[in-house]
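Tokens for chain A. Residues wanted.
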């Protein structure tokens, strides 16, 4: 930290006079830095940019000298290295502002719901922001709320002005409109509760529209990935097969090895990154499937080595007897299935429990609203509803009811429940419920508002699942097409090569060409590609790489089955 301060001081001494002219004539940094929440003066930031760029000048000089002496032209990309540094400094505030907006957009509907529900119970929005500054479930909103509280309690700004300033400095338009609209409603003396409720509903509608648009973009991304993976693979397979047939030595297989085990994983990672940047994210990540995947990866590697006699170096007696029926493609398929199968089972159980929990809580809130209208206290309402069936949530609800009947406070009981669940949606909804009861007394209007907003959330999630559902089958068709086409292409190539060779054209002696190694290599490559298609397809269609484990495991089985069945029905 002290080193950075010294660097900033030196940069301002050297370039402090140039920085204002740059800001005046080239680019205004003040708004970008405020939206990115980078606490530094624009002049100092520009001076630091010039200093770092100057320090990288030796890289450009060395690159020019090496190009001149040795003629190594690829180094020409290092010549403008200081300009790369300056471009990076220009892009960092924009990137940080975009990241801040995306994190806040994820939490905005629930924060608006919280403020609206609290307002229906007579709680001022500033008080709601004060409570949000201590909520760990919404880290982005907590950070924004702390800025507002700091302006009020440290700098002495009145709450309304602090809220207006927070709206001006924020990169998210929805957040700006929400805060600015509240401030103007207070100034003109409008109905604050009605405004907050309508605005929260508008935010949910906007979120639903963005989810639909994101689903369409993800569908196009999945189509692009499958087209690239299938068509490009077929083109390369044709080239590699011709090279393998008409050349000798280990170099004949080097191209397909590099393409299969280096290029396609990098391409898959690129599409996973693109999908991740388009999808809505939650602060909670379920790590259990990934832990199982890590353990099973080691087991799968051991199984693969045992099935292949450690790639032919060490003979394993039991597995050596199986090599008459287990060749390289089957060994790879078994290893990949062992790697992803258990993780897929774990993820499926977690996802099923999570969906059941969210569905049960939605039904519970609707019933709670109706029972609350009878005049029972929130605690008695929960106790009476604990006898009803809400699926996965029923067990937790009975435990919550029992602890409340023992005299434990409802806040502590529900907070303990939040620690037991890993669903962010469940945690948010139950947190809003306990805040409604603890702060506002759990009035009928507050619980009704919470129930209505929860139903809107469920509708958004349902629309998102319905929008991406048609794309789930695409990876399966792509894998079958890739395996079948590759197998037929190899069969056709082998048939056309073997016919004249066997007949002894031109009086030559009849010969046969052994293509078993090439067929095994290409089949293994198709199985591995199907595995990658499953991972990427799961990420794009269900927002999680863990969801791709089940698709990858199924596609591996389908690919190896197709590779063995297609030659039985198609011959050349």
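Reply:
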């Amino acid at each position: 930290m002290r080193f950075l301060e010294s660097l900033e001081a030196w940069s301002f001494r050297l370039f402090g006079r140039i920085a204002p002219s740059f800001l005046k004539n080239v680019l205004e940094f003040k708004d970008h830095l405020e939206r990115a929440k980078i606490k530094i003066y624009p002049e100092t930031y520009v001076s630091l940019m010039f200093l770092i760029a100057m320090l990288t000048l030796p890289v450009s000089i060395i690159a020019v000298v090496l190009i001149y002496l040795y003629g190594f032209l690829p180094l020409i990309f290092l010549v403008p290295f200081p300009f790369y540094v300056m471009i990076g400094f220009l892009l960092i505030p924009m990137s940080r502002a975009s990241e801040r907006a995306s994190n806040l957009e994820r939490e905005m509907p629930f924060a608006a719901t919280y403020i609206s529900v609290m307002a229906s119970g007579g709680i001022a929005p500033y008080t709601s922001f004060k409570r949000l500054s201590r909520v760990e479930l919404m880290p982005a909103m907590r950070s924004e709320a702390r800025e507002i509280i700091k302006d009020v309690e440290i700098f002495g700004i009145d709450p309304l002005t602090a809220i207006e300033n927070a709206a001006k400095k924020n990169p998210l338009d929805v957040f700006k409109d929400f805060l600015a609209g509240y401030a103007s409603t207070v100034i003109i003396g409008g109905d604050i509760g009605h405004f907050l409720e309508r605005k929260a509903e508008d935010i949910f509608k906007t979120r639903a529209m963005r989810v639909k648009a994101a689903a369409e973009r993800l569908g196009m991304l999945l189509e692009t990935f499958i087209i690239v993976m299938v068509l490009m693979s077929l083109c390369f397979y044709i080239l590699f097969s011709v090279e393998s047939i008409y050349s000798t030595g280990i170099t004949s297989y080097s191209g397909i090895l590099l393409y299969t085990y280096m290029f396609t994983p990098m391409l898959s990672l690129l599409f996973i990154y693109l999908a991740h940047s388009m999808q809505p994210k939650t602060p909670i990540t379920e790590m259990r499937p990934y832990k199982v995947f890590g353990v099973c990866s080691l087991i799968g590697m051991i199984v693969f080595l045992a099935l292949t006699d450690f790639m032919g170096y060490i003979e394993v007696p039991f597995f050596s007897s199986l090599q008459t029926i287990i060749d390289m493609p089957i060994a790879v398929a078994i290893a990949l299935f062992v790697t992803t199968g258990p993780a897929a089972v774990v993820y499926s159980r977690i996802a099923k429990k999570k969906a059941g929990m969210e569905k049960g809580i939605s039904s519970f809130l609707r019933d709670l609203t109706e029972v609350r209208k009878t005049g029972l206290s929130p605690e008695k309402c929960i106790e009476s509803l604990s006898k009803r069936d809400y699926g996965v949530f029923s067990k937790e609800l009975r435990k919550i009811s029992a602890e409340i009947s023992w005299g434990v406070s409802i806040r502590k009981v529900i907070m303990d429940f939040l620690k037991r669940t890993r669903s962010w949606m469940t945690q948010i909804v139950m947190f809003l419920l306990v805040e409604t009861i603890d702060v506002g007394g759990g009035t009928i209007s507050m619980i009704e508002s919470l129930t209505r907003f929860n139903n809107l959330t469920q509708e958004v999630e349902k629309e998102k699942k319905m929008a991406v559902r048609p794309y789930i089958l695409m990876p399966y068709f792509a894998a079958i097409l890739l395996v079948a086409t590759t197998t037929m292409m190899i069969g056709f190539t082998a048939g056309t090569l073997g016919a004249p060779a066997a007949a002894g054209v031109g009086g030559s002696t009849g010969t046969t060409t052994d293509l078993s190694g090439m067929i095994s290599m290409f089949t293994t490559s198709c199985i591995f590609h199907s595995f990658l298609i499953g991972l990427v397809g799961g990420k794009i269609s269900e927002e999680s790489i863990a969801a791709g484990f089940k698709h990858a495991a199924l596609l591996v089985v389908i690919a190896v089955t197709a590779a063995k069945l297609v030659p039985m029905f198609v011959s050349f």
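The chain has 24 helices and no strands. Residues 192-246 form the longest helix (55 residues).
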